[in-house]
Hints:
alpha/beta, Rossmann fold, 5 strands, 12% strand, globular
Amino acid sequence: MSFTVAIDGPAASGKGTLSKAVAAHFGFAHLDTGLLYRAVGREVLDGAEPVEAARELRKETLERDDLRTAEVAEAASKVAAIAQVREALVDFQRAFARRSGGAVLDGRDIGTVICPEAEVKLFVTASDEVRAERRFLELEAKGFQTTRAEVLADLRERDARDSARATAPLKPAEDAVKLDTTEMSIDQAVTRAVAVIEERLGGRE
Length: 205
């Protein structure tokens, strides 16, 4: 049985943590699609041409431990605005989504472009300030030197770029369930997401 859960949302909204928890709960495979773009962004920072980097993306690049830096995040957002880069990565994502046993994919255009026929679509968001605080604490824990103001400015710049790009802009699918995690704990968010998915699964039985 194939069953796809598409989880979209802006940076630091909690969609990654939520996706991993949901996948673990149901025993579904999980793909952080943003990691694909981070890997391409990393290759570009190292001197590669964006489209070529996407077409020849290597497993070794996906496993690098420096893909979560602010520099790579900015590079990822820029390469994600290139239509040919997105096209190069679409087939991989769609094949993963329809694999047997169920799949959870999180990103920015899963429910709108990659998997518009997904059985469940969630759009996860939170206030700018809460997202910036989450990202600041994450970066601080990893030893990166930055400030809350810089992180907030970076997030807002990235939101604007992701939402305004011509190809696959960041926006909720029309039939997505919106989940605002501003005042939610991760457990509360997971409970809400699980309830939505269980309702759809039950409808297929």
